[in-house]
Amino acid sequence: MSNYIDEINKNLAKSLDILMPDKFPKEIYDAMEYSLMAGGKRVRPQFLLLACEAVGGNVSDAIPFACAVEMIHTYSLIHDDLPAIDNDDFRRGKPTNHIKFGEAMAILAGDALLNGAYEIMALNNTLAFKEIAKAAGVSGMIGGQTVDILSENKEISMETLLYIHNNKTGALLSASMSAGAILGGASTQTTEKIKEAGKFIGLAFQIKDDLLDIQGNSKELGKPTNSDEKNKKSTYVSINGIEKSQTDFEEFTKKAVEILDSLNLKNDGLQKLALSLLDRSR
Ligand code: GRG
Q1: Ligand 1 mean position, distance from CA 264 (Å)
Q2: Dist. CA 76 → ligand 1 center (Å)
Q3: Whose CA is nearest to atom 2 of ligand 1?
Q4: Of 94, 120, 179, 183, which one's alpha carbon is 20 to 30 angstroms from that of 64?
Q5: From the CB of 275, is ligand 1 less than 6 Å away?
C-alpha cells in the first residue's frame, strides 16, 4: 500500500466536517462517520492520488476527489449490506451500518455519502467529476449490481459474470485512476491507457475478493466469508475453479502493469500498488 493512507483518512474526516459543520442532525452524521472512518483499505483513493502523481500532477489538487470516491465506495458497501441486498452483519470489522443504526438511517447515511461526494466533486474538475459519476451510475457500479441481483440463484455465462465484475467493481476503480490522471493534467491518450490498466486491476481485485470469500479469514477480512454461497451467487471462482481464478488474477494484474510500464510515467507507484494487491489477505 502507498504512503497516502494517513493523508486520505485525515482528509476524509475533514470533508465530513466541511459537509456538516454543525454535525446536525447528529444521528446521520454519526452513521456516516461510523462507516466512512471504519478503516477500509482505501484502495480507490490511493489509486486516484497515485495516478495524479504518476502523470506529474499536484496531488493536493486531487485530495477532494480521493475523498469523494471513498465516500461513494462506502455508500455502496452500506447499501450492499442491507437486508434487501446481501443482508450482512459485519463489515470492516464492525457491525454493519444498519445493525448499528437501523435500516432507515443506513439508507440515509448511504444516500448522504453519495450526495456529499457529488457536492465535493461539483466544486472541482468537471471532466473528472463526469468520469466518477458515470462509473458510479447505471452504466457502471449500479448497472453491475443490478445484473448481480438479477443473477442470484441462476447459472450465468462468463460474459454476464464479466459484465457484473467490470461494472460493479471495475468501473469505480478504473475511473478513480482515470480521474486522477485527468486531475494531474494527463493527455487523453494517457488517461485512456491508465483507465484500461484500471479495468484489469478492477477485474483482478474482484477475482481476489471471490477467492478470499472462500479461502480468507473472516476476522482478518472484517466481514463474513462464504457470503457468495449464502447469497447463491455465481462468481469467477465458482465458474472457473480456484486454480484458474488464481492464474487469471495474476495474469490480469500483469497485463495492467505492462500497460502502465509502457507509459512514460513519472514513477511506478500505480504498478507497486497493483502488485501489492496480489498477496492481500483482506
Ligand atoms: C443503490 C440500493 C443501492 C445499492 C447499491 C452499488 C451497490 C449497492 C453495491 C455494489 C458495490 C459493491 C459492494 C461492490 C463490491 C466491490 C468490492 C470488492 C468491495 C469491497 O471493496 P474493498 O475490498 O473494501 O476495497 P474496503 O472495506 O477495504 O474498502
Answers
A1: 32
A2: 5
A3: 79
A4: 94
A5: no
Q: Which cell goes with 48?
A: 486516484
Please give the Cα distance from 54 to 66 (Å, whole number).
15
Report the predicted TM-score, pTM, of the whole model to 2 decimal places: 0.96
Q: How far away, in angstroms, is 266 Cα from ligand 1 center? A: 31
The per-residue DSSP string of 207-265 comes to HHHHHHHHHS-HHHHTS-SSHHHHTT---HHHHHHHHHHHHHHHHHHHHHHHHHHTS--
Q: What is the pLDDT along the chain (282 residues), one digit of tens a residue?
A: 668 999 999 999 999 999 999 999 999 999 999 999 998 999 999 999 999 999 999 999 999 999 999 999 999 999 999 999 999 999 999 999 999 999 999 999 999 999 999 999 998 889 999 999 999 999 999 999 999 999 999 999 999 999 999 999 999 999 999 999 999 999 999 999 999 999 999 999 999 999 999 999 998 998 889 888 888 888 999 999 999 999 999 999 999 999 999 999 999 999 999 999 998 989
Q: Tell me the C-alpha to C-alpha distance, in Å, between residue 206 and each of 10, 83, 167, 250.
A: 27, 22, 11, 12
| Residue with CA at minimum distance from ligand 1 atom 7 | 76
Mutate to test the pocket of ligand 1, among 67, 79, 172 (most ligand atoms within 8 A of CB): 79
Ligand 1 pocket check for 209: Cβ under 6 Å: yes
Is there an atom of ligand 1 within 6 Å of 36 CB? no
